[in-house]
């Protein structure tokens, strides 16, 4: 319960920060990495609900054609988390974890989500979508990296229990 409350406060803070300084921060450059980190930190329905609510509220405050970025992020993260849970179980034929690093799946979800948001927010104009996408990545990748490093450090040092499905 405390973890849900902390993620709710963090998502709310980032949402307010992005709305307060629209001239300073590009849309979803901070909210998207925090939502992805919330999804991969919690790896359960509560994380999906919190991230989905934050992405939906952001879409209501700054409407674009369709909230495709939120949908893509939630679906991709759910698929990757479910696949990771199946691969983490031991079987006689699989004796080690997946060859992917622990940061590959969240980074993939972030890049695809930001690409979708950049394309939809520029109304499918690829000449303006590419610079917007790169500008968002310059902010989003370090933010996601910091949150993923904190998540991995918490697992390694035993500060967080990882539930085995």
Count of domain modules: 1
Oligomeric state of shown chains: single chain
Instruction: Compute the average pLDDT.
Output: 84
- Main beta sheet: none
Explain this structure.
This protein has 165 residues and is mainly α. It has helices at 2-20, 31-42, 45-61, 68-88, 104-121, 126-156. The radius of gyration is 16 Å and the shape is globular. 72% of the residues lie in helices and 0% in strands. It has one domain (2-86, 100-156). It has six helices and no strands. Mean pLDDT is 84; it is low at 90-96.
Q: Which terms would index this structure?
A:
6 helices, globular, mainly alpha, 0% strand, 165 residues
Task: Describe, in short, the structure shown.
The chain has 165 residues and is mainly alpha-helical.
Question: Would you spell out the secondary-structure blueprint of this structure?
Answer:
Layout: H1 2-20, H2 31-42, H3 45-61, H4 68-88, H5 104-121, H6 126-156
Helix pairs in contact: 1-2, 1-3, 2-3, 2-4, 2-5, 2-6, 3-4, 4-5, 5-6
């Amino acid at each position: 319960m405390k973890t849900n409350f902390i993620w709710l406060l963090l998502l709310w803070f980032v949402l307010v920060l992005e709305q307060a300084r629209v001239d300073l921060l590009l849309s979803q450059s901070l909210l998207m990495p925090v939502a992805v980190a919330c999804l991969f930190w919690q790896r359960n329905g509560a994380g999906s609900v919190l991230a989905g609510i934050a992405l939906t509220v952001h879409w209501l405050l700054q409407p674009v054609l369709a909230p495709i970025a939120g949908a893509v992020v939630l679906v991709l993260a759910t698929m990757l988390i479910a696949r990771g849970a199946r691969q983490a179980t031991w079987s006689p034929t699989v004796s080690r974890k997946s060859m992917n690093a622990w940061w590959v799946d969240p980074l993939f979800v972030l890049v695809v989500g930001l690409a979708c948001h950049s394309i939809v927010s520029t109304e499918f104009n690829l000449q303006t979508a590419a610079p917007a996408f790169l500008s968002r990545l310059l902010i989003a990748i370090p933010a996601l990296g910091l949150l993923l490093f904190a998540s991995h450090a918490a697992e390694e040092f035993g500060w967080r229990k990882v539930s085995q499905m």
